[in-house]
Write a structure and sequence with these properties.
alpha/beta; TIM Barrel; Lyase, Ornithine Decarboxylase, Chain A, domain 1; 7-stranded antiparallel β-sheet; alanine racemase activity; 8-stranded parallel β-sheet; isomerase
Length: 354
């Protein structure tokens, strides 16, 4: 759906951070089958993991440790984001050492104030990149930046700054094939930012990129991840009974408590203690007491819940279950963080796999 929505711009599926907790390799394969032409990762190790899985699609890695070894990445046809003149020189040196031309995407900082070449250093950087192209050490395949998603006016100013940077690159003799600025948020709300390539991150996982209450359903998105567990134990307690560390919650009536064997070691945010809800036995039920490292407790009232019953922590809200954004609200964070932090102890199962 997203690839069609942003056409004719090409689509990059961002699979960094283990595909936002979903599993980089299976998500990458599914994204390519679904119409993505590119894959995006943060660091070179993530790109190598895709190549190790025999994924040959174009991959861009854009965030590098100061001591990054660019040579093996160049040898494996991994495109490299470059955020400074020093980084450009290091990539060129690595390309010469392996006897290959490095494909690079020059990043201009248009206002996010993170990585990227500062505007005052941009002219010198693109001029040097042009010299390195003549020497066949690098090929500037792309120019990119990233929106702050602050407001329409500020995003428009970033687009203007980016377009000026592209003009400077072309004036220096560069002919980048790809201009990319928009992630999911910009691609959906600011069509002018789509340019040649759109980097689809959180939207690929069915989670809205906006913090204004816009739901996945309103955007035509369906959450990809459903986090399930099974009730490990059930007990009946009397009024006044305390639950979990510090007894921050006490029963105010006779009630049934269900134990869920997931905790903050699995990525369940402790900040959501006594605030989040889960879906058990056809209804949303409150998490009570402090979420511990490996477990938490749910108040199910007088309803019958048995050991082994399924618990849905979050998933598609159209089923009645909480969403990742609901857990984000309960933990004073965002849905992005909720899905990305799900740890390796939690097995992933993929629909359609044998």
């Amino acid at each position: 759906m997203l690839a069609a929505a942003v056409a004719p711009a090409r689509t990059m599926a961002v699979v960094k951070a283990n595909a936002y907790g979903h599993g980089a390799v299976p998500v990458a394969r599914a994204a390519l089958e679904g119409g993505a032409e590119w894959l995006g990762v943060a660091d070179i190790a993530e790109a190598h993991a895709l190549r190790d899985a025999d994924i040959g699609a174009p991959v861009l890695a854009w965030l590098h440790d100061p001591g990054a070894d660019f040579g093996p990445a160049i040898a494996r046809d991994i495109d490299l984001g470059v955020s400074s003149l020093g980084q450009l020189e290091a990539v060129a040196d690595a390309a010469a050492s392996v006897g290959r031309t490095a494909r690079v995407h020059l990043k201009l900082d248009t206002g996010l104030s993170r990585s990227g070449v500062a505007p005052e250093h941009w002219a010198g950087t693109v001029a040097r990149a042009a010299e390195l192209e003549v020497a066949e050490h690098v090929l500037v395949r792309g120019v990119f930046s990233h929106l702050a998603n602050t407001s329409p006016d500020e995003d428009a100013a970033q687009l203007e700054a980016f377009e000026h940077g592209v003009e400077q690159a072309r004036a220096a003799g560069l002919r980048p094939e790809l201009r990319h600025l928009a992630s999911t948020a910009g691609a959906l709300r600011l069509p002018a930012t789509r340019l040649d390539l759109v980097r689809i991150g959180i939207g690929a996982y069915g989670i809205p990129p906006f913090c204004d209450g816009t739901t996945a359903a309103e955007l035509g998105l369906r959450p990809a991840m459903t986090l399930r567990a099974r009730v490990a134990a059930v007990r009946r307690v009397e009024p006044g009974t305390g639950v979990s560390y510090g007894h921050t919650w006490r029963a105010d009536r006779p009630t049934n408590l269900a134990l869920v064997p997931l905790g903050y070691a699995d990525g369940i945010p402790r900040q959501a203690s006594s605030r989040a809800e889960v879906w058990i036995a056809g209804a949303r039920r409150p998490v009570v007491g402090r979420i511990a490292m490996d477990q938490f407790v749910v108040d199910v009232g007088d309803d019958h819940v048995a050991t082994g019953d399924e618990v849905v922590l979050f998933g598609d809200p159209r089923t009645g279950a909480p969403s990742a954004d609901d857990w984000g609200d309960a933990a004073d964070t965002i849905g992005y963080e909720i899905v990305t932090r799900i740890g390796p102890r939690v097995p992933r199962r993929y629909l359609g796999e044998a």
